[in-house]
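Q: May I have one protein plus its fold?
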Amino acid sequence: MNRMKILKKMSLTMAILATILAVSPIVMNQVYAQEEAVQQAPQKTEVKKPSATDELAYAVDNMFLFFCAVLVLFMQAGFAMVEAGLNASKNTVNILFKNLMDLCIGVGLYWLIGYGMMYPGDAFKGGWFGFAGFGVSEKLGDVAGGTLHPQFDFLFQVAFAATAATIVSGAVAGRLKFAAYLIYSAVLTGLIYPISGMWKWGGGWLDAMGFYDFAGSLVVHAVGGFAGLAGALVLGPRIGKFNQDGTPNPMPGHNLAFTALGVFILWIGWYGFNPGSQLAFYGSANTSAVGIIAVNTTIAAAMGAFGAMLFNWILYGKPELSMALNGALAGLVGITANCDSVTNGEAFIIGIVAGIIVVLGVILLNKLKIDDPVGAFPVHGLAGIWGGIATGLFGDHPLGAQIVGSLVIPAWAFITMYILFFTMDKIFGIRVSEEEEIKGLDIGEHGEEAYAGFQIIETK
């Protein structure tokens, strides 16, 4: 009896073991499958909330950049005053209108395609051309110091694009058709400026070479200066500027008070241009860098004005206000590429040399019978090249790369803009009629006057 019970228990145990052995593979397969599914399933990552320090740094950097962008945008008013003051009163409306449209067209096209071409992303590093897409992102990225919201960055960058375009307005003043100018402005801000800008600031081939341009002596100012030279060459000089023997006749502007006011506005706006290009302001290192940049900017501007005044005084026996004012602007242009890399003493030298270059540049233009009513080419073109070279001489950046960048960027702007102006001239003519030029572009192009009710009498 006991033996039978033992056998039954053994049989039952064996049956249970057999069942377990039969079922266990199925169970284990299901477990493994569940584990694999869990591993393959997207894991929920906990979003780390920015620290109070990160929030503060992000706010400081972006709001300071916004303030600098407004200063640079305000430079449009400075350019308008400088150009209007250095030209005849009969062309004031035309000049103001061009400065307004530079900004308006520039904002539209740079937002649509220019920003995406100039900053195409890491995929195009070391290249010649790229495109990140249309428009500008509106999404909030990482919140931390040194991280810029795309909207603030665009606002700052589009002000630079408008600056490059408006430089040409003064060089072609008094004889260029308004429609032709609008076409030029659109091409420069939407295509030419973003492409060469990408070569450096967008991580392109010049940047990979080691070329350095902190805030745009070449990327911004030389582009505008050499584009202006191209326009002036295709247009030819104003009526009465040069005699038959090639000697120049002075054609003074109608309001040096406007010009002086414009230069002071530009000087102040440059504190957005140069210190703003630091792009990060939170923390002792960034704050100190901004201070050095601002002081270097101030010294170079002051010495540019002094150098131009003194050199012109030595050559012609009298100090000339308009030359000193342009000298200040040249000093600002010359220091823009290297204001973060040089000492105060080196900024002093850069400014003095820039002022002398302006005087020599005006003399050169007169010798070549090229009419640049405001000196845009000497101020922005030649001083821009000087800024690029000075960055290699004083700023501890490779001189070879600086020479290459200082030649390639101006050449790109000059060749492309010369082709554009020349093509437009052949297709529909870009210069106003002789009658319209004599009467003034305000009436001929726009049908309105800047000084309505006043009788403007020009004497020669």
